[in-house]
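User: My instructor asked us to take a sequence, write out its structure as tokens, and then describe one feature of it. I'm not sure where to start. Here is the sequence I was given:
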Amino acid sequence: MTSEPGGPSPRPEVRLRTARIAVVLGLPLLAGVAGFTVSAFATPADTAGVTPLAGPAQAAAAATAAPLAPDTVITMSATGDVIMGSVPDMMPANDGHGFFDSVAAPLQSDLVMGNLEEALTEDTGTSKCGVNGDGCFQFRLPPAYAGRLKDAGFDVMNLANNHTHDFGPLGYENTKVALAAQGIDYTGDHDQVTIREVNGVTVGIIGFSPYAMHNQVSDIAHGAALVRMADRFVDVVVVQAQMGAEGPDQVNTPYGPEIFYDENRGDVRAFSHAMIDAGADVIIGHSPHVLRGMEFYQGRLIAYSLGNFAGGGKTLSNNGPLGLGGILRVSVKADGSWAGGQFVSTFMDATGVPTVDDYQQSQQLLAELNSADFPGTGVSYGPDGEIIAPDQPQAAEAG
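Assistant: Let's start with the prediction itself. The structure tokens for your sequence are:
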């Protein structure tokens, strides 16, 4: 985390007293953002004694907790696109039970995040593809499948993408309800910052996509204002972003805006750098359905795309680079600064189930992309996927 550029003093230290809190902060206008929603699933027990913060004075009054030790470190894990299957004829085996068993161990961390690319809802009577749907892709599973995500250990799912609205606004709302029923938070609504308290460290997660119902990757000024605002109230800011064009030939990270099916999928380099300049500490990209490279910018990690993680019921192709993904593990200090990381290579098996890849094909591809696309700033990897920043000694690879 960084202080707001040009600000006369550091951000106020705000300590939220529960792991899951739902409040609305009615803050003054800041660079075009009139206010933002800080949300997460909350139960009455979670919010007992929590006072909603209505402005800077109340926020300052909430800063009563003892400062964290400067060496406090938390570990977060994140995945790429998650589709467990789809009704009626692309269902996973065993009704999805055990779907994530192969990857459960490396997923475990203080905060587990994924990008959910489907609706969890019964039939709403509305669908993106309509009756025929030829050449159109839409994905839906019953709400009970949120329990499979819980079993895997997911804490937060990003919904800012092009499939969570496949079954209309009702399907989207039903997805949120299904996640909440399992104690899983979501992020992705416009001007939403989802806050989790992790071992005393407050983490704010913001979802972006190309679409107006979310925070748009093409509106860099608005996104930066939202990040700056979040940066005032949390210790660590994580950006989850659907950005970039799709397809097996999109593994390289270009300069400039990417247009895909007449949609502006963002200038991913400019967007990511601007979010870090505004105070973000980690950028996690999705959308291309293939891996893209990783680089460090201002000491913060950008993963431009984590690829396909799960495509149950053969919902996603696993041909070539489309079948490769991984689990990104990032450790940060309480101020958001880098403390280490690891990339665990995965692949989708013949039925789209995520599987740890002992041959590390994903890591090998990323090493090539990092060298080609980010000379001087790209990540290198140790033998077990340890993430090595450009300024770290390469001897670290041996240990």
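For the description part of your assignment, you could build on this observation: Residues 168-181 form the longest helix (14 residues). Try explaining in your own words what that tells you about the chain.
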